[in-house]
Each structure stands twice: as C-alpha cells, then as structure tokens.
C-alpha cells in the first residue's frame, strides 16, 4: 500500500496533484463520465424521436436506476470479496462493448433493444461503482474523505457540463451514432488508466460466508450504526423526488422550450457547470467544517434544492428554466461530499463495498420509482405541476432531517461522524 502522507491535503486540487493513484482513477472516471453523458443525451433523443412520449423516456430512465436495487447489493458483496481493481477493469471492457451495441437499436422495429441494453449497461455500471467506491477511498486519509467525495462528484459534473454540450452538438449535427461511439472509446481509456493503479485496499478481507449471509452482514452493520441508517433513510426519501425531475427536464427541453434533439445537453451542461463550481470553490471549507455543521448542511442542501425545483416548470423562456436548474444543482452539490464522507467514516473497510452498494440501492430505487411515476404523471398533471410535486418531496425530506438532527442534539444524542483519527480504513 502506498504510504499515507502525514498531513491532510489543504484542498481538492492539491489532493489530486499530490496523489498519483487517486489522480489516475479520477481521470479514468472523468473520461468515462464524459462518454456517459454523450450516451444519455443520445438515448433520450432517440427514444423521444421514435415514440414522442414522456412515458417511454421515463421508462428508459427508470431502467438506468433499477439495477441499483436488483444488482447493486450483490455488487457490494463482490467488491468485498474479489480484487476490486480486477472488477473495475472487467466492467470497463464490458461497458465498451455494450455502448457500441446501442447502435443496433437505431433502426425500424429495433428500438426495443434500448431497454435491455440500458438495463445491462446500468447493471455492469453498478458493479463497477461498487468496486470503485470500496477501493478508491483507501487511497486517501480518513480526514480527506470530504475532498475525496468532492473529487468523485466533480469529475462527473465537469464532464456533465462538457459532455452535455458536446453530446447535444454531436447528436444534433452528426446524429446519435457518434455519441455511442464516443461512449465506447471513453470506457477503453478508463480501463487503460485504471490498469496503472495498484495501491490501496484492493480486497476488503471480509467474511467468506455464503453470498446471502454476507449481504445480511452488511445490512446488519447498516442498521446498528445510527448515522448510516439515518443517511440511508434520507437518501431514499430525497430520491423519490429527485428521479422524476430528469423526466420533467427532458420534456421541458424537447417539447416546451424546443431546444432540439440534443436539448437535454443544455440542461446537463448547466447542472454540471454549477455543481462543479460549488465543489471547486467550497470543498476545502466543507472539509474543515465541524461534523455537526456538515450534518446540518446535508439537510439544508435537500431543502434548498427542493425549493428551487418547485417553480422549474413555470418559466416560459428556456434561459430562466436553465437558471433554476443550475441553482438547484448548486444546492445539491453540497449534499454529495458531506453525506458520502460521513458514510465512509462510519463504514469499516471490510464491509465498505456492501454499505456503499446499499446506499446506491436505496438511491436508485427511489430514482427509478420517481422517474417512472414522473413519466406517467407528466402526461396527466402537466409540466408545471410535476416539478412542484417533486420539489416538495425533496424539500420535505430536508426539513425532516434537520428536525431529527435538532432533536437529537437537544437530547445530546447526536448522530456523530467518527473522528478521522479513529476511523477504520
């Protein structure tokens, strides 16, 4: 294992500059995230053009999330048993092949292939994510978990911004075939960069019990650790509102504001740019904030994003809708680093894959339900009412979290983030 430096990094960019192994994995994820947003723009444009229905787009989005529940927990067991680096390399190779397979769906009578391919790609992606979430944190110090979480989140947002705009341009000018080709190439580059990293905790060293028993062990760990249990409940509730916002945004971009075939790319770009700016500007301050402050910021982030989502369907101009979408993304950017850092600090390495996969499972279950319901409701209640309903769910989850934190603090039974010096890695 690579020696851990004697002092924590002062900020996000210094962390990436000084830590070669983390930087290589970060770059690999950065590149594959770019390709992923190319693919997301292309898939939604293709489905909308072929069907013209919000329900079909919502179903496609739900299939991207559903494997988080069906596959994600088992992927966490695998991440705690197998060599995490090997799992990531294998997944990158499979994802490259699946990205090219989407080209088969672009033809008369073959659109149905989008649905199994979306499910398969998402399933492999969750296996990759489980291995990464278990291995990558071991490359940093426990008191750098906030910066690590910000680094993981900002890479997706940076290329969500670039990939969203580029995906919109490529899809609008050259068609979605090129977007799928770029996605495949991104996974090959990610594989090459990951292959150069060998440091860190590549195996969890957890129990060799049967798979079901191993999964139950992870669930028991989550239930008996109050902070982990509370974070899982919040994530589930918040995502019940969040998932449908992407369905609503797709409808706004393509049908209300008429931004063209790659119109969702403009919204993705605004979301990525706003989130990346917040993380780059404030991640160091988040790292140095007191644990109780970071726990309150989790709830405030949910509350503010919900309030900003409520009026999303009201503006008649695309620029105003983009501004609201970007502001909501800026509020959401605080949630990821603070919540994931708390989760990592509370989860021992031998079950970290399972804990992080449970986090993904509850999130994606909420996102899948919300996306499918949002697609169905959009044709019923309209684009003005749906964002208001979804935003209210998100805001309420934030309010409940803040109330629970305040009550626990009053009773001197706060949900404590473990001290960095004693956290298990």
Q: Overview of this structure, please?
A:
The chain has 16 helices and no strands. The protein is mainly α and 425 residues long. The protein has one domain: MFS general substrate transporter like domains (Growth Hormone, Chain: A, Up-down Bundle), CATH 1.20.1250. Helix 6 (84-101) runs antiparallel to helix 7 (114-135) and helix 11 runs parallel beside helix 15. The radius of gyration is 20 Å and the shape is globular.
Give a brief outline of the structure.
This protein has 425 residues and is an all-alpha fold. The chain has one domain: Growth Hormone, Chain: A (Up-down Bundle). Helices cover 77% and strands 0% of the residues.
Q: At CATH's second level, what is the architecture?
A: Up-down Bundle
Number of domains: 1
Radius of gyration: 20 Å
Work out the helicity level: over 70%
Strand segment count: 0
Helix tally equals 16
CATH fold description: Growth Hormone, Chain: A
The helix/strand class is: mainly alpha
CATH top level label: Mainly Alpha
Q: Whole-Å distance between the termini?
A: 12 Å
* Sequence stretches where pLDDT stays below 50 over 5 or more residues: 419-425
Q: What string, H for helix and E for strand, traces the elements in order? A: HHHHHHHHHHHHHHHH
Biggest sheet features:
none
How would the global form be characterised?
globular
CATH superfamily: MFS general substrate transporter like domains
Please state the average pLDDT score.
83
Quaternary structure of the protein:
single chain
